[in-house]
Write a structure and sequence with these properties.
The protein is an alpha+beta fold. The protein has 10 helices and 20 strands. A hairpin with a 2-residue loop joins strand 18 and strand 19.
Length: about 375
């Protein structure tokens, strides 16, 4: 017997799709909805650490995903000098276990498509172009009103709908998201043969200039700068900005920069953060992933922590007989301190960069890796 029979998952991103897979496989009826008209067809690269890969393997998607990415076990720290001198090489801990790479680069649309296919195969009903507008709880179920005026009732609603979660707002949960004063440009480009891992160039005119291999012939590169208020730019203008920003960095960056004329779309976002104090539920509505905690990408743990949320939540729902205070207390105990510590480390790295302080980055990576190596 499970704690729930019928669940609405709002948001068909990483944590939402993972939740739908686990619950549907456990015999729960799952509706997975997303306000977007269709799954994303374009997007930036994504770096997944071993603890994320562990969850993806448990979800049954690792075999397919590993054909669409690039795994590696080291991190390089380079100088912003004419040679791109390697200052340090860190051998990363395989946080997902010895048979998974420490780090894996792929593309967000690829990962999204694989997870959504798996959710549908598991039995979840997936609907895009469907938006939640209101919730009404009676203690034993949740009545949901959708944007088209239709209504439905569920045992539980899971809000996995991102930083500006509509589910969180509809449940009356207040949360302030703050900008960190850093902006990131990401671009897809051909992979030079010399790029076989992530290298971070620290210093120079930018906070970070880095890249991550995503396949035998591809990578995504990223450049982190202070806010510039550049306004709306065409793709050509965006590529010109990226080339200009990358001009100060060398080594493999020289080949990456030369190939940007063939690059695809440019992704531009700001670093933002928030952390919802526990509990993450209000009655039978719970938020997970970015709806509960927003990570800057400095330690590449945002997706991993969202996947761990889904793992712990679904485990509890499938092994308990009812939705009780004890269930939510266990969820908080297993998730909050772990998320807070990893988020704190990600923010510490941001602060070092903002302050121009040369902190112990390898030590910070090792601390987080040791924390997330045991399953959540």
């Amino acid at each position: 017997m499970t704690a729930v029979d019928r669940v609405l998952v709002v948001g068909a991103g990483i944590s939402g799709a993972a939740t739908a897979i686990r619950l549907a496989e456990g015999g729960v009826t799952v509706d997975l909805i997303d306000a977007r008209p269709s799954p994303p067809a374009v997007g930036s690269g994504i770096t997944l650490q071993g603890n994320a890969l562990r969850v993806l393997r448990e979800l049954g998607v690792w075999g397919r995903l590993q054909q669409h990415g690039y795994g590696f076990d080291t991190l390089g720290i380079r100088a912003p000098d004419p040679a791109g001198t390697v200052l340090a090489e860190v051998t990363d801990i395989r946080t997902g276990g010895p048979d998974l790479p420490a780090t894996f680069g792929t593309y967000r649309p690829v990962l999204a498509r694989i997870l959504l296919d798996r959710a549908a195969a598991a039995g979840a009903k997936v609907r895009f172009g469907t938006e939640l507008v209101a919730l009404d709880q009676d203690g034993s179920s949740v009545a949901v009103t959708f944007a088209d005026g239709t209504t439905d009732r569920y045992d539980l609603v899971v809000g996995a709908d991102g930083i500006r979660s509509r589910t969180r707002a509809a449940a009356g949960i207040e949360l302030t998201t703050r900008d960190l004063g850093m902006e990131i440009w990401r671009v897809v480009a051909p992979r030079p043969a010399s790029v076989t891992r992530t290298d971070l160039f620290l210093g120079g005119p930018l906070y970070i200039a880095g890249y991550c291999p995503t396949g035998e012939k591809s990578l995504y590169a990223y450049l982190v700068e202070p806010p510039r208020n550049r306004g709306d730019l065409t793709l050509g203008e965006q590529l010109a900005v990226v080339r200009e920003l990358a001009a100060a960095y060398h080594g493999p960056w020289d080949a990456i920069r030369d190939a940007l004329a063939d690059a695809g779309s440019v992704n531009f976002t700001t670093f933002q953060t928030h952390l919802l104090d526990p509990p993450w539920n209000r009655g039978r509505v719970v938020v997970i992933g970015d709806a509960a905690h927003a990570f800057p990408p400095t330690l590449a743990q945002g997706a991993a922590q969202s996947l761990e949320d889904a793992t712990v939540l679904t485990e509890l729902l499938l092994t308990h007989d009812a939705v009780t205070d004890d269930l939510w207390a266990e969820f908080t105990e297993r998730r909050f301190d772990r998320v807070r510590t990893v988020l704190g480390a990600s923010l510490q790295l941001c602060q070092w960069l903002l302050d121009g302080e040369r902190g112990d980055i390898p030590g910070l990576h090792t601390k987080v890796a040791q924390l997330v190596s045991p399953p959540a």
